[in-house]
Design brief:
There is one protein chain. This protein has helices at about 1-65, 70-90, 115-134. By secondary structure, it is mainly α. One of its GO terms (cellular component) is catenin complex.
Length: about 130
Amino acid sequence: MSGSIASYDQLVRQVEALKKENSHLRRELEDNSNHLSKLENETSDMKEVLKHLQGKLEQEARVMVSSGQTEVLDQLKALQMDISSLYNLKFAPEAPSSGRGPEESPAGPASHRDGPGELGRATFRMLEELDRER
């Protein structure tokens, strides 16, 4: 009889331990869900900022075209390509990664590495760093 009581007590302890683990896992799942929602909101906000920046770039390009500043317009086009590439790299979850870094991106000619392209790569590195901090 004492064997069955010990066995019963052992089962009760196991059930209690499983209940605690279950509670812990539920809390962790809820925390992860909240964190995911926060990240989705931040991503949405970042998309809006990128759209706004692209709109500003397009507006500035129109002003420059009308004033004949075509070399600056070429730099803006390169910057816009960098922003588009960055957007596609960071926010296209279903696009398979090609394994190329931003320096190998087919966004433009090699001459755009020193100028707006460098700004795009710096922005990309900063976003990667922020992503790692999260």
